[in-house]
From TrEMBL:
Protein name (record): Hemoglobin
Source organism superkingdom: Bacteria
Organism: Solimonas aquatica
A molecular function (GO) term: metal ion binding
UniProt lineage: Bacteria, Pseudomonadati, Pseudomonadota, Gammaproteobacteria, Nevskiales
UniProt keyword terms in alphabetical order: Heme, Iron, Metal-binding, Transport
Length: 137
């Protein structure tokens, strides 16, 4: 074995792998929308969705799969996505961003995500949620 090959380190696990793969990411998407349904402080963002959350749960699962480092299911099914365009019709300010983040934190707790995974995801999730704001307040 060459010296260069000996120095190659295995890639660190992705958040997808750290969460537990497909079943865990699906459970995370389900828990996210379950939290949105259950948390009174998420009423504003819940009202932005239709009565049934089944389709959006599936889309979030597919999106998170690729975003977390797993199979790019959303891209394979729908092509590239501009989250800004998808959220442009909605009035999203700081309060709505924070409601989304509270639902995601509740979902991560519901699926027993480790503190390490929650720490890894906290800043990127905040950046994503904050970037989707459509209004300043």
């Amino acid at each position: 074995m060459s010296e260069a090959a000996a120095k190659v380190q295995p890639a660190p696990p992705t958040p997808y792998e750290m969460l537990g793969g497909e079943a865990a990411v699906r459970a995370l998407a389900d828990a996210f929308y379950d939290a949105m349904d259950a948390l009174p402080q998420a009423a504003t963002i819940r009202a932005m969705h239709g009565e049934s959350l089944a389709e959006i749960k599936e889309k979030l699962f597919e999106y998170l799969s690729g975003w977390l480092g797993g199979p790019r299911l959303y891209y394979q099914k729908y092509g590239s996505v501009c989250l800004g365009h998808a959220h442009a019709p909605y009035a999203i300010g700081r309060a709505e961003r924070d409601q989304w983040l509270a639902c995601m934190e509740a979902a991560l707790q519901a699926v027993d995500a480790s503190e390490e995974v929650r720490q890894i995801l906290r800043h990127p999730m905040y950046r994503m949620a904050n970037a989707l704001r459509t209004r300043d307040d």
